Amino acid sequence: MYLCCCKLNSVKPFISNTTTKAKQYFIVLGLVLLMSAICFALSDFIGYRVTAFVLLVTVSIIAMLFDIFPVLLAALLSALIWDFFFIPPRFTFLIESTEDMIMFLMYFLIASVNAVLTYKSVRLQKLQLRKKRKPVPLCSIILYLIHCRTSYVHLSQQLLAPPIQY
């Protein structure tokens, strides 16, 4: 039996807790490349602006699971892939339209800021979960109170007892 009405559920560890930095970089690269390949296959149907949103969501999900530097790599890589493979003229890093240039810069800025803020938010949640105290079983409190009562009785008997004379 617990004093509070609910137990704290253990939170499953995130990927960043169980993998090395090198594995995180490889997983992040794989996810960005996979999503880019899917978007490239569908680019005739979805257009390059929808692709930007798909890649942005991918970076946001990566930010919830991995450390900050792999996430920033994902933001940079997805922006460059989006520019090279999707923004017209395709297969160049040249952006002719002013609208597309502003959109590219905003994409990179939003992806980076989103990555950093999401990473900080997840890290703060992990710290708060570690700091929360687990509920104390009722039997432990009763035993503590019995010990305090016994100590109090023993102390009061010692204070009230007549002094020992030699």
Describe this entry's structure for a reader.
With 166 residues, the chain is an all-alpha fold. It has a domain of 114 residues. The protein has six helices and no strands. Helix 3 packs antiparallel against helix 4, helix 3 packs parallel to helix 5 and helix 4 packs antiparallel against helix 5. The longest helix is centred in the last third of the chain and has 34 residues. The radius of gyration is 29 Å and the shape is rod-shaped.
Number of E-state strands:
0
Shape: rod-shaped
Radius of gyration over C-alpha positions, nearest whole angstrom: 29 Å
- Quaternary structure: single chain
Integer average pLDDT: 80
Order of helices and strands: HHHHHH
Low-confidence stretches: 1-14
| Total of helices | 6
